Amino acid sequence: MAQAGLFRALFDCRVVLRTLRSLASLVAYASTDQLIDVRLEYDDLASDLKAIPTADSAVELVRWAEERERAVYAKLDSLAGDASADLPLHVRFESVLWLQSVRFSRGGKQIAPRRLLMIDDLQKLRKKQRELMLEELVELRPAIPVWLAERSIALGDALLSQGAREGRDLRHYPIEEMWSGKSQQQFATFAQSILDRRLDVQREIPAGAFSQYLEDQLTSEDLMDLFGKAVENFDKEMERHRGNIRYAEWLAHADEAQKTMGFDSLMQLYLTRILVARSEGRRQLTLELAPLPAEELDERDSKVLGAAEIFCHDDLKLPYYYGVDRLCALATTNVEELLAIAASLYEGMLAKQVLRKQPDLRLSPAEQERRIKETAKRKRDFIPKSHTEGTRAQRLLDAIAQYCRDKTFQMSASYAPGVTGIRLSRYELSRLRPEQTKNSELHALLARVLWECVAENLLTTRPSAASTSRDEGTVFYLNRSFCAHHDLPLQYGGWQDVSAETLINWMDGPSAQTKRRSAEVPR
Asked: Counting Cβ atoms within 10 Å, is residue 133 exposed (0-12), middle (13-18) or buried (19+)?
């Protein structure tokens, strides 16, 4: 009881202090000591305030909040040895009511009439503290908006407190869902604005748009050494189809593309290989002996083109992870990850400025990809040091990535542009719930590893609706930097169903990277 009262008291002090400090910033004051000309007035709701004084001076209220905060910390330090009276306890979160009832005025004019209470990093609180705050804030029915931000893994089944109803008392806005799908461009725009502002505050290289320093097109020099290899591989793969009249027009079209070196010609070769592989893999044979029309090559969608590009990258090591759009995609809707990758690219720009004295600071696609993959590798290698079940998490993520590679790099591109996630059905997920894992230590361990991966943005989840052939479930997509580390595409959509037992075997089995290296044949 005392701990809950101290928690409320500390929260109330923080809200009052942050409000008045924000007010000082709004009126361009350097500190709260300059708020002597700001008067505080209250409506009838303030009569219910018991712990927070209804002072009419902002400076006086700041002094009260600072003293009360120090008193709370002093009691927290001595609480274990002295649980005596005179504790600064609050019986409810009064700061919400105070913020709702207070009116600020300066020079006879009201200022800051609209307000929003934002509480970030709620996942850092204890579970009971989160539940207490959510329940009491709902019961207070505040007239002002209250924003509670926390990692989704912390919500669990306690997202809605007892009696709260979605859409009226409480609304849930998953940021990942808001910034995914059709709204993905919204995050890209937001991310680029952050990068541009960061570039404006530094003085080492000329300010401007971050994207201006990132080459987003492959040049003829990038393709020169690889185009011949691509043609050689194409001729070798298509040699057995040269006598098949069905592919005569397709192959003639590809032969014509070989005469002009360029990115589009390169994509045409891989697109032809994909479509031929798909035609060969069809189960129902047709009696048509006429050549397949070349027009079918032009009726290509973005997914097949994406598959052709990632195939080209994996086969020829042609740069794939470059340009500001893919930089934003690699962030996995996480600003911290965006800045980590951008910092590595910025170091490359800075190196050109300081060491080489080059007038052109733009990073080539190859330079961008090298730095991006180095950052992705560091992130992957750091997992065992930064997570409770880090070694198992790393092993599981590597195995998922290798499984995705096996599905992605089938020449028919059945899951174009590629597979970057696995799905657990509702039944499989139910086996990982606490009440179901009491008799299975391995399932409980898998649940901890998965939840930790989601909490740290190593895996991102998206709901999967039921269909006539499958139950509903949840898709676990790899963090996009892991896609870069394992040479997978960055698009979402491709996934495969797996079982909990499969994930347990991957989690406790040998490293997928070790398997991959042992399977490689030296050239």
From this structure: buried
Q: Residue 416: left if φ>0, alpha if ψ -120 to 50, beta else—which one?
A: beta
Residues 5, 68 contacting (CB under 8 angstroms): no
pLDDT at 88: 67
Do 390 and 384 touch, CB atoms closer than 8 A? yes
* Structure tokens given for 223: 């393709």
CA distances from 252 to 100, 141, 241, 297, 488 (A): 74, 71, 12, 12, 31
The Cα angle at residue 15 between residues 10 and 17, in degrees rounded to 5: 95
| Burial bucket for residue 112 (CB in 10 Å: 0-12, 13-18, 19+) | middle
Residues 52 and 2: their CA atoms lie apart, in Å, by 18
CA-based nearest residue to 139, from 92, 90, 89, 91: 92
The residue type at 245? I
Q: Can you read off the two tokens belonging to residue 373? A: 């993959």
Strand order in the sheet with 421-425: 459-464, 473-478, 421-425, 495-497
Domain boundaries defined on the chain: 2-178, 181-216+321-383, 220-316, 387-519
* Residue 376: partners with Cβ closer than 8 Å, 6 or more residues away: 330, 481, 482, 484, 485
pLDDT digits (tens, 9 = 90+) for 113-167: 988 999 988 888 888 888 888 888 888 888 899 988 887 656 543 332 344 455 6
**What is each CA distance from 116 to 112, 137, 142, 150, in whole angstroms?**
10, 14, 11, 17
Mean pLDDT across 18-40: 92
Structure tokens at 242: 């040269």
Amino acid at 58: A
